[in-house]
Specification:
heterodimer, A: alpha/beta, Rossmann fold, six-stranded mixed β-sheet, four-stranded antiparallel β-sheet, 13 helices, 10 strands, flat, B: Rossmann fold, about 15% strand, globular
Chain lengths: ~325, ~250
């Protein structure tokens, strides 16, 4: 608790130096701070001094603990939609792994991901339990709006802010209280450009990026700036982005990657895949040697299709493929 | 009966979130009902009725919607009790961002959406600031980065609130949200309870039906913009000049 007595000894300048976000408190209450930084905090805050102390305390606790590290999560099996025990009784995923989730539409993929996000304790419709580093997740994962276990990326997501890439990344970094904001912006931008087929500039508006560029930027940004240890991906488009590299970027930042996909190439890129049906985890499949070998063939097929696509865009005929 | 007050800007997804959440509440065998407050018209009552949920609507018409809410809330609570409801929800749109329908000791929920712009949390007053739970919607269409920036802005305005993401279309997060409704206290009446924040000061000639423009027609509680001394004042998107609130206590 930040003591009111401490605040009584400070000037506004000293206050803002230590807690730069304190100006928001004054603005929100319609209290003018003026330009004179030597004014005593007691004079500026008046009757709101107690509230200011409370505000700063809450903000400090909210902003602390950013360095939470998670090494593994485990999903302890519950029930499927029929109320029967799901066949997979335990799914363990450790940092650096990519686990794919496959299953028909409506099979319960979203519920599994929601169980993980809510750090289920047997208190969701599936009765599953989610353990973080072997222990039941504590309340903090559920209560904080800012510190979430799961970051999400999906094909349907867009950038909606009217800003250039650089400003946008700086804004995100600032809201994460990141240090070396310029360095982080550069790093994300470089990383995103190495993933995207066509490069973009730092002053390109985020809303005018192509699908592949947007996804590349979202992935690089999530890898570097998001504090969520688990990244959940709902497909990655098959154009304008190097998907293998994208996964490598995330895994390289010590993320646990869960990917819902129907794409055979993505599914085979994973270390394992969980099959979901009727609301339950049915089995866990590890890619076989034959599957791994087929991945190369699938990639060659894919490259061929992309080549045709390119020719089409260039105005060519496809009489010969 | 549990009583939950839900408010939020127009089109933020209040009705969708309430409908999805009530599915889980009803699955536990609890009876639910809704009172919908709006200004001029609403069709949301049809949506509740289609789900077989008892609903009443109140349209404030020419009256200030928040004054209208507080003048009717006790009767609404008695309506819910009379129907033996386990859970009553009030839904109201915060139209001028100056009010909140929240009552002390009654679970207060603000619904706000990711598409409304990152400065919106600062523009919304007591409706966001004095809520117990803030539900952020439409997270499925914006980037992770924007969700994080938005949630941080919300938390900065209301550090005490529990901030959750709920998708009003798929219902993702609504089960989790519904578990928090059990925490609210049992209510037999709200008579004598107090609003968390005072309603706006009003009563000028326009409140009473005046339509003509000009100083000589303005009587009562009138305040003028200071147009002369604002030069050089930094009024940018980040540091909006805040309008002074009238005496209101953020009583929590």
């Amino acid at each position: 608790m930040i003591a009111v007595d401490l605040l009584r000894t400070l000037t506004v300048g000293a206050l803002l130096e230590r807690w730069p976000y304190a100006d928001g408190f004054f603005a929100d209450r319609g209290l003018e701070l003026g330009d004179d930084r030597d004014v005593a905090v007691t004079a500026a805050a008046g009757a709101a001094l107690g509230d200011l102390a409370e505000f700063l305390t809450e903000m400090e606790s909210f902003l602390s603990g950013e360095e939470l590290t998670v090494n593994s999560i485990a999903v302890i099996g519950g029930r499927n939609k029929s109320g029967d025990d799901e066949p997979v009784r335990e799914l363990n995923v450790t940092v650096g792994e990519v686990v794919c989730i496959v299953g028909p539409t409506g099979s319960g993929k979203s519920r599994l991901l929601a169980d993980i996000e809510w750090v289920a304790r047997g208190d969701t419709p599936t009765g599953r339990r989610v353990l973080i580093d072997g222990v039941e997740g504590d309340e903090r994962w559920r209560t904080s709006g800012d510190r979430k276990l799961v970051a999400q990326l999906s094909q349907n997501m867009n950038f909606v802010m009217d800003m250039g890439v650089g400003d946008f990344l700086a804004l995100h970094a600032e809201s994460r209280r990141a240090d070396d904001i310029d360095g982080k912006v550069q790093r994300i931008w470089n990383e995103a450009n190495s993933l995207a087929g066509e490069p973009f500039a730092l002053d390109t508006p985020v809303t005018s990026l192509s699908g592949g560029q947007s996804r590349a930027l979202m992935i690089a940004d999530t890898a570097v700036l998001s504090t969520s240890p688990v990244v959940l991906i709902d497909e990655i488009e098959n154009a304008g982005i190097d998907r293998q590299k994208a996964l490598d970027v995330l895994v390289g930042q010590d993320k646990i990657v869960l990917m819902a996909t129907h794409d055979p190439i993505l599914a085979l890129m994973g270390d394992r895949r969980v099959v979901i049906n009727n609301g339950g985890m049915v089995k866990v499949v590890e890619p076989s040697t034959a599957e791994r070998a087929n991945l190369d063939e699938l990639r060659a097929l894919d490259a061929r299709l992309m080549g045709l696509r390119h020719r089409l865009r260039m105005g060519e005929r496809l009489d010969e493929i | 009966m549990k009583f939950v007050t839900v408010s939020g800007p127009p089109s933020s997804g209040k009705t969708s979130v309430i409908l999805k959440t009530l599915e889980h509440v009803r699955a536990k065998g609890r009876s639910v009902g809704v009172v919908k407050f709006d200004c001029l018209s609403t069709f949301d009552d049809d949506l509740y009725r289609a789900q077989g949920i008892p609903v009443r609507k109140g349209l404030s018409g020419a009256l200030c919607p928040d004054h209208y809410f507080v003048s009717n809330v006790e009767e609404c609570v008695q309506w819910g009790l009379g129907r033996d409801l386990d859970v009553l929800v009030s839904e109201s749109a915060g139209l001028c961002n100056r009010c909140s329908p929240y009552i002390r000791d009654i679970l207060a929920v603000c619904v706000i959406d990711n598409l409304s712009g990152i400065n919106t949390p600062q523009k919304i007053g007591p409706m966001l600031k004095s809520a117990d739970i803030v539900i952020i919607t439409k997270g499925d269409v914006v980037s992770q980065a924007e969700r994080e920036v938005f949630a941080t802005r919300v938390q900065r305005v209301n550090p005490k609130a529990r901030v959750m993401h709920v998708n009003g279309i798929t219902g993702q997060g609504s089960f989790e949200f519904s578990t928090l409704w059990d925490d609210g206290e049992e209510v037999a009446t709200v008579e004598g309870k107090r609003l968390r924040f005072s309603m706006p000061a009003a009563l000028c000639s326009y409140c009473l039906g005046e339509t003509r423009i000009g100083e000589k027609y303005q009587m009562g509680n009138v305040r003028k913009i200071d147009l002369d001394t604002q030069d050089g004042l930094e009024v940018n998107a980040d540091r909006q000049q805040s309008a002074p609130l009238t005496e209101g206590e953020d009583g929590r």
